[in-house]
């Protein structure tokens, strides 16, 4: 189903960077008209294990100036402990790196307060004994798994105001482009940020939904490994998918709580001038 729906979405040109695509090119193909400038905004999964040729292509072929990494500190620590860490992408000459943990401390507190008292006690015990994997599993099995990806995305929107402001601040500055946004899979946190950007740029909802759902196909090469990671921390296989109705749920939530994406961004601190600069940087007919 995902293959049929997203057949018109370009596949990643890289060998070792999954889920990479030019957001402008993708949207224009899906919408059938030139809406966004191409070669400006990119999205992908983690580029940690990119081979040398792929690393070079980020700057030579795609002229990436800024990489925005939405992962948490714990994810960076976990990556550093893998058997084949390759942190060299963090020092590619000419690229500015911005680390913004989208699901930051406010998001974590929101999850903790959804635990029953017994769950909070277990969490405190594991934290006190420096058993971080057990502490994480307490949250994932008791709160995250029952909620599902869509509800967690809405929790991010509810709690991560300062982080979203930080991302849009970067997106408003012309000197940061071309710019790449990524998280671990380039699917959920990256998908949420790109969704907000595309809504701000008045991209048709159908194109936004297809771009979001294309990530499921793009991540097939590492699906089995990802399922193992998810199961190890107590999450179900559904967390590897792009849930149907995600875009519609976010649209409804934004409209119900904030009157739409403009009201939401204004509420988190992304003012009118900043929003206009994002549009100038990305829309066809504007100079970035």
Outline the secondary-structure elements.
Blueprint: H1 2-5, E1 21-22, H2 23-31, E2 41-44, H3 52-60, E3 66-69, H4 73-80, E4 96-99, H5 105-112, H6 117-128, H7 132-159, H8 161-171, E5 179-182, H9 189-200, H10 205-218, H11 223-232, H12 246-258, H13 261-268, H14 272-282
Account of the protein in words:
By secondary structure, the chain is an alpha/beta fold. Helices cover 55% and strands 6% of the residues. It is built from 14 helices and five strands. The chain has helices spanning 2-5, 23-31, 52-60, 73-80, 105-112, 117-128, 132-159, 161-171, 189-200, 205-218, 223-232, 246-258, 261-268, 272-282; strands spanning 21-22, 41-44, 66-69, 96-99, 179-182. A five-stranded mixed beta sheet has the order 1-2-5-3-4. Strand 3, helix 4 (73-80) and strand 4 form a beta-alpha-beta unit. Helix 6 packs across helix 7 and helix 12 (246-258) packs across helix 13 (261-268). The two termini are 37 Å apart. The model has no long low-confidence stretch (mean pLDDT 89).
Question: What attributes characterize this protein structure?
Answer:
single chain; alpha/beta; 14 helices; globular; 288 residues
């Amino acid at each position: 189903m995902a293959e049929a729906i997203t057949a018109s979405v370009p596949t990643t040109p890289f060998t070792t960077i999954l889920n990479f695509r030019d957001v402008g090119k993708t949207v224009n193909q899906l919408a059938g008209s030139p809406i966004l400038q191409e070669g400006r905004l990119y999205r992908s999964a983690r580029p940690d294990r990119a081979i040398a040729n792929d690393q070079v292509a980020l700057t030579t072929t795609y002229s990436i100036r800024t990489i925005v990494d939405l992962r948490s500190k714990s994810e960076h620590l976990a990556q550093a402990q893998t058997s084949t860490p390759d942190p060299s992408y963090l020092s590619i000459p000419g690229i500015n790196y911005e680390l913004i943990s989208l699901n930051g401390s406010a998001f974590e507190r929101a999850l903790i307060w959804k635990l029953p008292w017994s769950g909070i006690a277990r969490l405190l015990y594991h934290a006190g004994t420096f058993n971080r994997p057990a502490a994480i599993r307490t949250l994932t099995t008791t709160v995250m798994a029952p909620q599902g990806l869509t509800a967690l995305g809405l929790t991010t929107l509810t709690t991560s105001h300062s982080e979203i402001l930080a991302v849009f601040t970067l997106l408003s500055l012309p000197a940061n482009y071309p710019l790449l946004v990524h998280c671990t899979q380039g699917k959920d946190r990256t998908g949420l940020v790109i969704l907000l950007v595309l809504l701000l740029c008045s991209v048709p909802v159908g194109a936004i939904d297809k771009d979001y759902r294309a990530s499921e196909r793009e991540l097939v090469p590492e699906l089995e490994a990802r399922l193992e990671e998810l199961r190890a921390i107590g999450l179900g296989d559904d967390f590897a998918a792009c849930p149907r109705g995600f875009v519609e749920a976010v649209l409804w939530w934004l409209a119900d709580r904030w009157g739409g994406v403009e009201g939401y961004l204004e509420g988190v601190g992304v003012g009118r001038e900043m929003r206009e600069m994002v549009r100038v940087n990305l829309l066809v007919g504007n100079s970035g």
